[in-house]
Each structure stands twice: as C-alpha cells, then as structure tokens.
C-alpha cells in the first residue's frame, strides 16, 4: 500500500477494510468490552488507523457521511500542534499533494469509502457480535429507550 502512496491518508481506508477486516473487528470488539466511562484509542499519528476506526464508529452511530468527512478534516487540523510539539513533520502537505495529484480531496475519499458500506453488516461479517454492536451503540448514543 505504501508504494502506491496510500498510507497516511484516507486513500487506503477502503483497501484496509477489505484486506484487514479482522483488525477492525478486534478494535471494535475491544472497545465494546471496555469498562463504562471514556475510552481512548489511538494509532501512531492519531488520524490514520484511528481515523478509520472513528469512521466506523460514527457510521455505526448513524452520523451522516458528510459530518464524518468534516470530522476527519477537523481532526487533521487539530493534530498540527501535536506534530509541532513532538518535533515531527506534519504529513498534511504531503498527503494533500497526493490527493491533488489523484484529483480528489479528503472529503471525497471519505464519502467514497462510506458509499455503499453497511457498517453493521461489515462488522458482523468480520466477527463482531450483535451484543458488542449494541454495546458500542449504547456507549456512543446512550441506552435505548425502546
């Protein structure tokens, strides 16, 4: 994936979902089994794998795709001071260049990733149980009042 200049951007999300579904299922299941309260999950930069899991969680909570795409962009902006504090290079300009060269934007890529993706069915097919999905929804949205 790196040779195709996909890593570090949402360009690899669809491919990751296809090739590494078990990893997505493992994170969602782990989150579902956490004790009550806040939960922190993160990857190295806080926007790549973290962004993908956030996309799945927000979609599972029925957040509109446009809002998920906007959240991704806001998160990317919010990470700039972190990169500066860590003394590491913000990959944002490089990622933006890759997206521009491909004639797309982060918004378009996120929307494309979500298009036709039934997150609940995807997660169930990867091994996440119904009880775990209900637990995640309850954590995100509060208990159901059926």
Walkthrough of the structure:
With 146 residues, the chain is mainly alpha-helical. It contains nine helices and no strands. Helix 2 packs across helix 9 and helix 4 packs across helix 7. The longest helix is centred in the middle third of the chain and has 14 residues.
Terminal residue distance: 44 Å
- The counted number of beta strands is 0
Q: Low-confidence parts lasting 5 or more residues at pLDDT below 50?
A: none
**Radius of gyration, Cα only, in angstroms?**
16 Å
How would the global form be characterised? Answer: globular
Q: Tell me about the largest β-sheet.
A: none
H/E element sequence = HHHHHHHHH
SS-derived structural category: mainly alpha
The average pLDDT score comes to 85
Strand content: under 5%
Organism: Amycolatopsis coloradensis
Protein name: Tyrosine-protein phosphatase
